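re: the backbone from monday

yeah here it is again, tokenized this time
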């Protein structure tokens, strides 16, 4: 779950009513994603929303304003849904630098 400060009430209600999926701690995959501009949520969001199941983990409010998106939670969900994509993305960005 995103940090409480960035977690809208509507998202918590959607989880309780089973409209949204929950990412449990034992499901999380940890990979250090460098804090490079190319890997910012702002640039990766448009690709991520195309992944099947991505919307079911994210608060609806984040689709209206990507400035609200918590980067750590964003990449935790991406690693569950498309680990190969994230690993390749990080490799590609590092090679370009």
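seq for it, each position gets an aa:
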């Amino acid at each position: 779950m995103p940090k409480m400060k960035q977690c809208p009430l509507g998202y918590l209600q959607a989880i309780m009513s089973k409209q949204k999926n929950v990412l449990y701690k034992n499901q999380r995959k940890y990979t250090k994603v460098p804090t490079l501009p190319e890997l910012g949520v702002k640039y990766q969001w448009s690709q991520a929303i195309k992944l099947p199941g991505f919307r079911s983990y994210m608060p609806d409010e984040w689709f209206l304003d990507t400035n609200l998106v918590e980067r750590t939670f964003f990449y935790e969900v991406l690693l569950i849904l498309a680990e190969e994509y994230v690993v390749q993305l990080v490799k590609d960005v590092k090679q370009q630098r």
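The chain has one domain: 4-96. The CA atoms of residues 33 and 56 lie 22 Å apart.
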